[in-house]
């Protein structure tokens, strides 16, 4: 058997493999790389696992979420496996003869997942794809634009590269607008940057709090990342109706188990419009009778402890430097508080609700 992180999004440190009472026990640790605080992302593949139960123990605090590890045989179709969880540091998986199996903290999303999504929308005449900029490691950042309206709407994700559930929500918002809210395309031009930290996402970095600062603290007078400089230039002089930055929060627990919104500054010209959008999301998710991800109205206002004044973050930049009418960050949990960990389908429905809420807020 072999444990590897040598694939897009991979992240693991293998510490030991041993046999205890006839059972294989693997000791592991998430790889923090250049993150300067404790963080929790990991993702690995096991090739040629033995048939039977293998125990996986993590040594650097709890990183197995309450819904269990997320697992896949092909790296494309994922589900949380609550039954294999022992505690927050351990899971035991019963292998039945598969050649390989992936395990991850949450549902990963890397460039190949974006390309799969793009395949489903690429023939839409309203959509254009270009290269936004090139990353420090030479990767081309995709930019999607759609519509030809006079005002602009921006969506970004992966300022913190390990926050993968956010990407599924963003994909769904984009598709919903193309499919269900198409008249928005006459009033607005949408600009979508799906991977702000594309190198980190592909390399399987944590990304959060990376040294000297992460991509969502780069909105300074002298940004250090190519993407931030490109955003400064690209957004200059635009008439921005809305900016939404898609994130995932802390690993789990409390408010981190349900979606929440960090509001941008309540600045002119429309200090309260972002609250209206949040209220629409709340109403729409509340009245959906299916087993869906609900936004229950948990927000942190600009100036609260978790949303400090003056942070050099994306939403503050768009609100204060670009006068966006709406500018907020929406956090989608890694696995959530439903009976089982989130599925891609549930993340997509959440995106549909956000798209509809945006429509109801901006098209009235
Ligand atoms: Zn984040």
Descriptive account of the structure:
With 364 residues, this protein is α/β, with parallel strands linked by helices. It has two domains: 2-104, Immunoglobulin-like (Sandwich); 111-362, Zn peptidases (Aminopeptidase, 3-Layer(aba) Sandwich). 24% of the residues lie in helices and 27% in strands. It is built from eight helices and 18 strands. It has helices at residues 111-121, 165-180, 184-187, 198-203, 226-235, 273-287, 314-320, 344-362, and strands at residues 2-4, 13-20, 23-29, 43-47, 52-58, 70-72, 79-80, 85-87, 90-95, 100-104, 127-134, 140-146, 151-157, 188-193, 240-247, 260-263, 299-300, 326-331. Strands 11-12-14-13-15-18-16-17 form an eight-stranded mixed sheet, with helices on both faces. A five-stranded antiparallel sheet has the order 1-4-10-6-7, with no helix packed on it. A five-stranded mixed sheet has the order 2-3-5-9-8, with no helix packed on it. Strand 2 and strand 3 (23-29) form a beta hairpin. Helix 2 (165-180) crosses helix 8. Bound molecules: zinc ion.
């Amino acid at each position: 058997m072999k444990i590897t992180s040598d694939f897009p999004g991979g992240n693991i440190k293998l510490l030991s493999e041993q046999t205890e009472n006839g059972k294989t026990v693997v000791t592991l640790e998430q790889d923090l790389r250049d993150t300067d605080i404790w963080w929790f992302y990991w993702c690995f593949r096991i090739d040629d696992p033995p048939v039977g139960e293998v125990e996986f123990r993590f040594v650097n605090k709890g990183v197995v979420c309450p819904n269990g590890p997320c697992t896949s045989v092909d790296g494309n179709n994922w589900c949380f496996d609550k039954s294999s969880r022992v505690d927050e540091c351990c899971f035991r998986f019963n292998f039945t003869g598969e050649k390989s199996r992936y395990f991850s903290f949450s549902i990963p999303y890397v460039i190949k997942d974006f390309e799969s999504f793009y395949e489903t929308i690429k023939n839409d005449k309203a959509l254009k794809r270009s290269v936004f900029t090139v990353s420090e490691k030479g990767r081309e950042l995709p930019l999607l634009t759609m519509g030809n309206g006079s005002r602009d709407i921006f969506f970004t994700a992966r300022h913190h590269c390990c926050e993968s559930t956010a990407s599924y929500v963003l994909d769904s918002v984009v598709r919903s607008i193309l499919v269900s809210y198409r008249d928005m395309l006459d009033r607005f031009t949408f600009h979508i940057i799906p991977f702000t930290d594309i190198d980190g996402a592909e390399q399987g970095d944590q990304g959060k709090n990376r040294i000297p600062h992460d991509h969502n603290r780069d909105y300074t007078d002298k940004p250090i990342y190519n993407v931030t400089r490109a955003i400064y230039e690209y957004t200059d002089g635009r008439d921005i109706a809305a900016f939404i930055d898609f994130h995932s929060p802390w690993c789990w627990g409390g408010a981190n188990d349900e979606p929440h919104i960090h509001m941008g500054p309540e600045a002119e010209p429309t200090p309260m419009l972002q609250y209206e959008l949040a209220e629409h999301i709340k109403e729409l998710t509340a009245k959906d009778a299916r087993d869906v991800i609900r936004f229950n109205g948990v927000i942190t206002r600009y100036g609260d402890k978790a949303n400090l004044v003056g942070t050099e973050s994306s939403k503050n930049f768009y609100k204060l430097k670009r006068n966006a009418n709406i500018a907020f960050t929406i956090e989608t949990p890694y696995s959530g508080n439903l009976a089982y960990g989130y599925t891609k389908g549930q993340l997509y429905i959440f995106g549909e609700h956000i798209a509809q809420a945006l429509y109801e807020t901006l098209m009235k």
